[in-house]
Amino acid sequence: MAADKRKKTGEGKDPLPRHIAIILDGNGRWAKKRGLPRTAGHAVGAETFRRIATACKNRGIEYLTVYAFSTENWKRPEDEVGTIMKLLGRYLHEAIETMERDHIRMKVFGDLEALSPELRALVEKTDEISKGYEGFQANICLNYGGRDEILRAARRYAIDYAAGRADELSEEGFSAYLDSAGIPDPDLLIRPGGEQRLSNFLLWQCAYAEFYYTDTLWPDFDEAELDRAIAAFQSRDRRYGRVKSF
Fold first, then answer.
1. pLDDT tens by residue, 92-118
2. If you count Cβ atoms within 10 Å of the first and of the last residue's Cβ in the chain, which end, N or C, has fewer?
3. What is residue 5's predicted lDDT score, i.e. its pLDDT?
């Protein structure tokens, strides 16, 4: 997390964010504007994720974390939830081939117990493949909520502490119980779609993230918009509570 470990875009240029997090917002509105079912927006949004993940890798970003399906999204219409799950399954199938070909790591954050056995098996497969590679890592938040993650982490810590397997609680020690254990916190949080809120996403991890909001709906989010977000990040003065030096 230390600022002095940030990678550079090139000699004399500003640092790149090491970790970018994105809330995938606007799929349904994108489809509605075109007279299409909301499910069509999710299909296009899945392809956008594929492109943006590749763009991040090509630009030297080390980690990309996306909010694909929240703990609250189960309240959506049954057919929409079903379509999202099918898309996720198809994406994970395709991702397994890509991971092995391009040596990409992938991790899924969230409470996986509510997922189908088929999806859980695919998640386990991506975990296994990821162990053999280093470099760019894509994280997909699936059945994920920031508060839920913190509660699950607290329960695991309490069990370990009671059994004598954990020390007195510290920020670093608690972070080891989160879904994102071992991964640096996001430097840049991007939210397409015009909304300006966290929506229960990475509440612990985004304590010092820079936020970038855009009205562009997620299916229309492209490399140019990604570069604008990175440029905005590079213009920020990140002090981590310190006083600005002149």
1. 888 888 888 888 899 999 999 989 999
2. C
3. 41
Domain that holds residue 84: 16-234
Number of separate domains in the chain = 1
Annotation marks residue 73 as catalytic:
yes
Residue 40 has pLDDT above 90, yes or no: yes
The answer as to whether 245 is a domain residue is no
* CATH label of the domain that carries residue 101: 3.40.1180.10
Burial class of residue 198 in the structure, from the number of CB atoms within 10 Å of its CB (0-12 exposed, 13-18 middle, 19+ buried): middle
Q: Which of 27, 58, 73, 167 is catalytic?
A: 73
**Annotated catalytic residue, options 4, 14, 25, 237:** 25
**Residue 244, Cβ density class (10 Å: 0-12 exposed, 13-18 middle, ≥19 buried):** exposed
Q: Are strands 105-109 and 137-144 parallel, antiparallel or unpaired?
A: parallel
Q: What confidence tier does 3 reach under pLDDT thresholds 50, 70, 90?
A: very low
Whether 200 is a known active-site residue: answer no
Per the structure block, which two tokens stand in for 175? 């972070």
| Distance in angstroms (rounded) separating the CA atoms of residues 28 and 219 | 10
Q: For residues 130 and 3, which has the higher predicted lDDT (pLDDT)? A: 130
pLDDT, average across residues 1-11: 41
Give me the pLDDT at residue 8, please.
43
Burial class (CB in 10 A: 0-12, 13-18, 19+), 162: exposed
